[in-house]
Automatic annotation (TrEMBL):
<dbReference type="GO" id="GO:0008757">
    <property type="term" value="F:S-adenosylmethionine-dependent methyltransferase activity"/>
</dbReference>
<keyword id="KW-0808">Transferase</keyword>
<keyword id="KW-0489">Methyltransferase</keyword>
<dbReference type="InterPro" id="IPR050447">
    <property type="entry name" value="Erg6_SMT_methyltransf"/>
</dbReference>
<dbReference type="InterPro" id="IPR029063">
    <property type="entry name" value="SAM-dependent_MTases_sf"/>
</dbReference>
<feature type="domain" description="Methyltransferase type 11">
    <location>
        <begin position="70"/>
        <end position="169"/>
    </location>
</feature>
<dbReference type="Pfam" id="PF08241">
    <property type="entry name" value="Methyltransf_11"/>
</dbReference>
<protein>
    <submittedName>
        <fullName>Methyltransferase domain-containing protein</fullName>
    </submittedName>
</protein>
<dbReference type="GO" id="GO:0032259">
    <property type="term" value="P:methylation"/>
</dbReference>
<dbReference type="InterPro" id="IPR013216">
    <property type="entry name" value="Methyltransf_11"/>
</dbReference>
Amino acid sequence: MADDALDTDEVAAIYDELLQTYKKQWDHQGHRSLHLGYYDDDHTEPGSAAMNTMRILSNAAGITESDTVLNIGCGAGEDSVWNARAHGATVIGVNISEQQLELARENARNHDVAELTDFRYDDFHELSTVEDDAVDVVWGLEALSHSHDRAVALEQARRVLEAGGRVAFTDIFLRPGAGSLSEDDKRQLAQINDALGIRIGPISAFDETLESTGFTEVSIRNMTDGIRKSTKRRQQFSKVAGPVGKVLDTLGTVSSTQVDAFDAHSSIHDFVERGVIGYYLATATLSA
């Protein structure tokens, strides 16, 4: 993929190919989350930390039973199902992978919230399946990092939100204090971006884009300290699985996509430790 562009089909193919790796992780953790867990004194295990990230974002968004929530980049539906179960909210989940959408529907059925959830194939840059003024909250849990044009994504969020609606996102961004990147850092960042189908940008630019798109009451919260243990766990796994994967890749057992993802997750933790990458929660309101 080019440095600035993201192809929808290529991104979907990456995550469809990584599903086998993620399914093993899901079996171990007991949930289908793909996102980073937020650790604190009350949430010390991977599963509960992943649920904690959803709880924190949900509280920040003020989600209630009366809300219709649009979950962009819904993945296997864990956060959609969580909001339906925890709050009784109606949730529309959109994603660009049919495989993940089917897992999301299965997840909703297994947790008896199929009637509260609706999973659709849609690109959050287009939202062709969502009408104007149709939702109360646009929610993205590590979704916007998969956008190379966040202004377009936010314009679509604005279109589908009712007046006074809210957006709530968590994601990884370049930190304000990161400074100019060395050539080695740029190459490493490019490897992360291409391996995971993402485009990591500065949090300051995202803050500005929210305001220029017409959102007010913008709040940006740095959550990096809480997810350090999660990125470290991924790095530890990657340092074991990566070398083994490279051997198995030559035998056709593990794909180069999986090996590249291992390397990317290891690099992310290095950047987090060095203060280059941070994890942020952003909320904002659409002017009435």
